[in-house]
Amino acid sequence: MNPAGHLKLIGQLRDLQIVDRDGCKCGIVDDVELEGEPGKPLAVTAILVGPGAYAGRLPRWLLWAAQRVAGARVVRVRWSEVTGIGSTVQLRSPARELGLMKSEDAARRFVPRGGAI
Amino acid sequence: MKLLELTLGIMTAVGGFVDLSELVFAAQAGSRFGYALIWVFAFSTIGIMVFGEMSGRVAAIAKQPVFNLMRHRLGLTLGLITLVASLISNLITCAAEIGGAALILQLLTGAPYIVVAIASTIVLAGSIWILPFKWIERTYGLLGLFMIVFAVALVAGDPPWPRLAHGLVPQVPAGLSGKELLAYGYFAVAIVSAVMFPYETYFYSSGGIEEKWGPKDLAINRLTTIVGFALGSLLAIAILANGANLFGPLHVDPQMPGTVALQVALPLGRTGLLLALLGMLFAISGAGVETCLSNAYSLAQFFGWEWGRYKKPWQAPRFTLAWLAVFALALAIVMTGIEPIELVNYAVLFSILVLPFTYLPLLLLAGDRTYMGDHANGRLSRVFGWTYYVVIVVAAVAALPLFLLTSGGQA
Amino acid sequence: MLPKPARDRASGEPARLAKSLLLGLVLLLAAARQPDASQDLPVIRSARSLVAEWALVNRVTAERRVTDTYATVMRRQLRRKLTKQWRALSDPASPAGQAIATCLHLPDDAASAVLQAQSQRLLAIEARLEAA
Fold first, then answer.
1. Domain containing residue C104
2. pLDDT digits over B258-299, tens only?
3. Across the interface, do C123 and B103 touch by the CB < 8 Å criterion?
4. CATH number at residue A54
5. How many distinct structural domains can be found in chain A?
6. Beta carbons of A16 and B131 less than 8 Å apart
7. How many CB atoms lie within 10 A of CB B403?
8. φ, ψ for residue A67, nearest 5 deg
9. In this structure, is residue A101 part of a structural domain?
10. Residues on A contacting C at a C-beta cutoff of 8 Å
């Protein structure tokens, strides 16, 4: 699917796996950022990744619980970074250049290397 | 090579079919209701074949595991609720399996329960850390084939074969009191839940992606789920039939996993007992590994993390920490002293409540030509899929009232 | 100024269905409380089976069909569970309580026939409670 064409935002974009240039899984499309005015065409300007993007998508009690556990960080990935949309959203750049994978890198400090075949 | 692959796949499915819940419910179903619940095992096995085949096909064609679809189809709120419910369900099941494995190890070695519980958790965690995915799956699946001794014991016990065969006919036994009817209903629902545990499809579909299945693997997927699960269910039915033939007349409704091994000791003596205990140990341990990894898969897939044992543990650190945390929590539950059989009851109840939310996205996606192309559900898959979905919803609605009215099948 | 993103509509209908199911289940839960008289039935049923299992373990041990380790561990586990069931009875001095207490006073390797007799006693009590 062509990111420059028309999209069904909920059916074809939101909640899809994001995969970077190197094939790394780097999050889910938690929400989309739009630009436009009432009566004028809308354009997607960015995808939003992180529990901070849940606001407005969850009931207040569930949002409170989710953000107590996972925090309220949100990473904004410019729409120009998206090269393709199918069963995943593919990005032009490596995840780390876009500010993604921070918690993955933090978690890596706790996992020893070695012992695996 | 393909034939070897297929044979190993089928054998793995057979050895991996039975877990603690099937063991316990099959044995109790037989001792309480004779052969009258065999048809429920057969019926549920067809259900897991249908959904198992669908989940493998989705992994091979859409290259998406079940939990990615879950969120995409159900939305964030319902997806999150389903995630939490299935995490709890799998965690309870994992704790039950670890507790069950510890009980069996205790029977084999005489060592204290807490020591063997910790030791078996460490061994299970170690096996996931060290071994690649295929070896994990094959090891527990193939070693679980010791369970075949239950089928041998059944033949040696010379059961009334015509009555056994009649158990395949859908029936409600005549002359049951109101309470017994409710208990029969509870056992039927519990068997559906135990055979169609959601963790099996999460694990199977994630495994398909771990093994990088493609369209050329569809035949193996179909044969593995159909032949493998059918043969596996014969083992569960053998345990039920042994329960009817050997335990029923003695008024034994196994309250402990160790008692089930007596089904083999009675006809086959000490050697039979040891083989039965080994089979139970590996089958239950395999289920412990599957439930643990299923939780890690679900969490990672829902939030879009790197996941899978095709990566080294440090290459998917959040996924690794997730499955380590599941084992730690499961062990903590075991250490509270709660009986594994009690945990099994809660696991079965929780799982059936989650099932409708698990299987709906799978059913919808497997039928969606946008993702599946020519491999979308055909008429047979659609008919069976939706029929079983209705059955699952009915079972889910009936489960909690039946559990309460029968005190978990004991009243 | 962009409008706030709308609530997640994709899950609207299923979420409402889930809420209705949950409410229905809670109501059924409230209605499902059993009368006090039959609360001992699950305990007695479990105890009856435990005694029968104990009898079976002792029988197969005498016939040398199981290992000594298996027999020792099973007897210990059975005794522990049986004690728990006895404590769970509403009246440990009831006929069912007395039958269980009799078993608990027996040695681990008690004769299988003696244990079977107590299991039958519990079975009769169970049948009376079920008929009530």
1. 40-131
2. 999 999 999 999 999 999 999 999 999 999 999 999 999 999
3. no
4. 2.30.30.240
5. 1
6. no
7. 21
8. -80, -25
9. yes
10. 10-11, 14, 31, 34-36, 55-58
Measured between CB atoms, which of C2, C8, C10 is closest to A34? C2
Can you give the CATH number for the domain in which B364 is found?
1.20.1740.10
* C5 contacts A31? CB cut-off 8 A: yes
User: Which CA distances in Å does B162 have to B9, B33, B231, B239, C98?
Assistant: 32, 16, 20, 17, 42
Examine residue A41 and state whether it is found in any structural domain, yes or no: yes
pTM for this one?
0.90
Cα distances (Å, whole numbers) of residue B261 to B149, B201, B235, B239, C69: 10, 28, 13, 10, 14
User: How many domains does the structure of chain C reveal?
Assistant: 1
**Residue B246 resides in a domain:** yes
Residues B75, B81: Cα–Cα separation, whole Å = 10
Q: C73 in a domain, yes or no?
A: yes
Predicted confidence (pLDDT) per residue in A42-87, tens digit = 888 999 999 989 877 888 888 888 888 888 899 999 999 999 988 7
- The pLDDT, as a whole number, for residue B218 is 94
CA-CA distance, B327 to B94, in Å (whole number)?
8
Cβ–Cβ under 8 Å, residues B302 and B83: yes
A24-33, B117-126, B211-220: range with highest mean pLDDT: B117-126
Query: Hey, what are B90's tokens?
Result: 């799998």
Q: Is the pLDDT of residue C6 over 50?
A: no
User: Using a CB-CB distance cutoff of 8 angstroms, which residues of chain C are in contact with residue A35?
Assistant: 2
pLDDT band of residue C2 (cuts 50, 70, 90) is very low
Domain membership flag for residue B410: no
| Domain membership flag for residue A2 | no
